[in-house]
Amino acid sequence: MGEIVCKATEFVESSQLWDRSELLIRLESILKRKGSFVCVLAGRNTGKSLVFQTLATRHEAKVLLVDMRSNHSGILLSGLAHIFQI
């Protein structure tokens, strides 16, 4: 876990930008693995929604989008429960 934190911190501090097509390729490779979970965090107006809408269109059966903006509790499990009406 420490290695992941170090790599994430290093990436964030580098201000490196990802090309959308490269990001889509990486996300699609993750979808090939069983039981994958992806959470993308980024600032406003960086194209997160566009990337995920494209991914969901291409891989409808494998992608569940949870828009946390409509989840006022701010808790992921609460957002999932709302979607599945649990």
How are the SSEs ordered, and which strands pair?
Layout: H1 2-14, H2 20-31, H3 48-58, H4 76-83
Helix pairs in contact: 2-3
Can you tell me about this structure?
The model has no long low-confidence stretch (mean pLDDT 79). The longest helix has 13 residues, at 2-14. Helix 2 (20-31) crosses helix 3. The protein is 51% helix and 0% strand. It is mostly helical and 86 residues long. It is globular. It has one domain (19-83).
Number of domains: 1
The best one-word shape is: globular
How much helix, percentage-wise, in residues? Answer: 40-55%
Series of H and E elements: HHHH
- Derived from helix and strand composition plus strand pairing, the structural class reads mainly alpha
Radius of gyration: 14 Å
How many strand segments? 0
Major sheet size, sense and barrel closure: none
Average pLDDT taken over every residue:
79
Key phrases:
globular, mainly alpha, 86 residues
Brief digest:
The chain has one domain (19-83). Helices cover 51% and strands 0% of the residues.
